């Protein structure tokens, strides 16, 4: 079956896509390898000997020294130092804890659901990508009652165009505590640590236990001291990663992952008790670093569909409504599609919506398939096959099945973005230019029409506009900037389609 029978607009979209898809078959394995390799280009801290993107070097080694946490040692793990490590989330040199934690959660979910499809080598690389993040998150949560949520002053950083290896901008450390709450970023951090504990459960039990224990304590802190971190730290985090959606969804999200990781009754009871209070019924067709409602409903629905938690049936109903809102041609569809068939939502970095929503489509498709269920959408129904095909069409668009015949993954295919909005990629490497490049000296590279000298392999950029046009220019950051939270859900999608094709 296909979505063709749902409505005429769907027929038009899918006929167009089918004609494009017929022209090319994709190497999902190559795309998977590159999507994971991208995370090595985003690493902060002391790079390991097996670093594969050699144009990157050590950076921000003294992060945390201004906060007096340079001597922090995380017990039970070989992790010492201050707040070095972690990821730069995008094309700048700030470490934002909120999107980093969401990236970690989605990388972990990709491995949990699709790790068996990755093969041994890429599964290990994906796990290493998770660990690079969790090692940092353990440092950021090592002080009880405190979560360090950002390193770097965004205004200072965004005023310079310089390599992370050359940074001389402010590395201010920002934290939340009982007097300055941040249930959103703390709840997401708890979710990330809990999800990662599942990834390491059989691979490294001791590390897994540490992650779960820390997730529990961070969640307790988030729930006890409720508030949005964009109220406590507005000048530092807004408008960059301001919490527009409220902190309630992150509390449910954290509880859902803690229940999945620990199987403790208290988290199940927390979800049931707080379902209405924390607005679980919101079926906003958003899913990303700021809005977790759709992810909560899909994640919890797996247990319902498996017949293990009928008392959570409302979450499945919410998930069904969310899925129907994505399907083109359905009467209550709330998502726009470009003429070429790409999911499009107004705002910056559209591809973050494409990969996250497609991940939920595929995950829910698998849950439905195993339960032999369909999604009721008004007087019609959508099958697991239909959801999977819609997710695949989004992935194929990213890889080159689009009006411009351009891959939006750097390094994949014969044509891809060459002038991405990314400091390290656009400036000469340390090898090519050993001398320090100061703050404003990088501006000429930013404005240059030349391709970036360093290829950030696997980076997926913000993508084309609603008309399928793409400028491939650094100043157009909404279109040309990659982010870790674009790639994280894509890892799971690519793993599945590498193993299964259609």
Give a description of the structure.
The chain contains 19 helices and 9 strands. It has a domain at 1-41 and 317-420 and 456-502: Alpha/alpha barrel (Glycosyltransferase). 57% of the residues are buried. The chain has a 3-stranded antiparallel sheet. It has a two-stranded antiparallel ribbon with strand order 1-2. The protein is mainly alpha-helical. The protein is globular and about 65 Å long.
Keywords, separated by commas or semicolons:
about 500 residues; mainly alpha; Glycosyltransferase; two-stranded antiparallel sheet; disordered N terminus; carbohydrate metabolism; cellulose degradation; Glyco_hydro_9_Asp/Glu_AS
What shape does the CA trace take?
Answer: globular
**Strand and helix order:** HHEEEHHEHEHHHHHHHHEEHEEHHHHH
CATH architecture group name of the domain at 1-41 and 317-420 and 456-502: Alpha/alpha barrel
- Round the mean pLDDT to the nearest integer and report it: 91
Number of helices: 19
Reading side by side through the largest sheet, how are the strands ordered? 3-4-5
Largest sheet: 3 strands, antiparallel
**Percent helix:** 40-55%
Topology-level CATH name of the domain at 1-41 and 317-420 and 456-502: Glycosyltransferase
CATH hierarchy, class of the domain at 1-41 and 317-420 and 456-502: Mainly Alpha
Signal peptide: 1-22
InterPro entries: 6-hairpin_glycosidase_sf (IPR008928), 6hp_glycosidase-like_sf (IPR012341), Glyco_hydro_9 (IPR001701), Glyco_hydro_9_Asp/Glu_AS (IPR033126), Glyco_hydro_9_His_AS (IPR018221)
EC number: 3.2.1.4
Enzyme class: hydrolase
């Amino acid at each position: 079956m296909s979505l063709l029978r749902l409505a005429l607009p769907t027929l038009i979209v899918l006929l167009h896509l089918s004609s494009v898809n017929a022209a090319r078959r994709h190497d999902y394995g190559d795309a998977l390898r590159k999507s994971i390799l991208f995370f090595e280009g985003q690493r902060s801290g002391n790079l390991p000997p097996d670093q594969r993107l050699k144009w990157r070097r050590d950076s921000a080694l003294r992060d945390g020294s201004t906060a007096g946490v340079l001597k922090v040692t995380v017990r039970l793990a070989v992790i010492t130092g201050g707040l070095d490590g972690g990821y730069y989330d995008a094309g700048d040199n700030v470490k934002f804890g909120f999107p980093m934690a969401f990236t970690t959660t989605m990388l972990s979910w990709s491995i949990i659901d699709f790790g068996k499809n990755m093969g041994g080598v890429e599964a290990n690389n994906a796990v290493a990508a998770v660990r690079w993040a969790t090692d940092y998150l353990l440092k950021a949560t090592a002080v009880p009652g405190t979560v360090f949520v950002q390193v770097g002053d965004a205004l200072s950083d965004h005023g310079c165009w310089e390599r992370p290896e050359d940074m001389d901008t402010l590395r201010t450390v920002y934290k939340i505590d009982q007097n300055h709450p941040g249930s959103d970023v703390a709840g997401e951090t708890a979710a990330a640590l809990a999800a990662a504990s599942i990834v390491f459960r059989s691979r490294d039990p001791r590390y897994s236990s540490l992650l779960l224990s820390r997730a529990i304590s961070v969640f307790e802190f988030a729930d006890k001291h409720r508030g949005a971190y964009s109220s406590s730290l507005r000048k530092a985090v807004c408008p960059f990663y301001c919490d527009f959606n409220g902190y309630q969804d992150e509390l449910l999200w954290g509880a859902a992952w803690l229940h999945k990781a620990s199987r403790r009754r208290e988290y199940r009871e927390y979800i049931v008790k707080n379902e209405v209070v924390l607005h679980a019924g919101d079926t906003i067709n958003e899913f990303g670093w700021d809005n977790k409602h759709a992810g909560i409903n899909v994640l919890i629905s797996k247990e319902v569909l498996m017949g293990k938690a009928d008392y959570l049936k409302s979450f499945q109903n919410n998930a069904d409504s969310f899925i129907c809102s994505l399907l083109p041609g359905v009467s209550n569809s709330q998502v726009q599609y470009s003429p070429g068939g790409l999911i499009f939502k107004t705002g910056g970095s559209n591809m973050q919506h494409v990969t996250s929503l497609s991940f939920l489509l595929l995950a829910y498709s698998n849950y439905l398939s195993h339960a032999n269920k369909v999604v009721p959408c008004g007087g019609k129904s959508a099958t697991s096959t239909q959801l999977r095909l819609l997710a695949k069409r989004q992935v194929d668009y990213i890889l080159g099945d689009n009006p411009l015949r351009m891959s939006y993954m750097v390094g994949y295919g014969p044509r891809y973005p060459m002038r991405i909005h990314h400091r390290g990629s656009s400036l000469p490497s340390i090898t090519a230019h050993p001398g320090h490049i100061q703050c404003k000296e990088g501006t000429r590279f930013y404005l240059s029409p030349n391709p970036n000298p360093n290829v950030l392999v696997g980076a997926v950029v913000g993508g084309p506009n609603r008309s399928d046009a793409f400028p491939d220019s650094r100043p157009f950051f909404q279109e040309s900037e990659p982010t870790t939270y674009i790639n994280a859900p894509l890892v799971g999608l690519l793993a599945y389609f590498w193993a299964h094709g259609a």
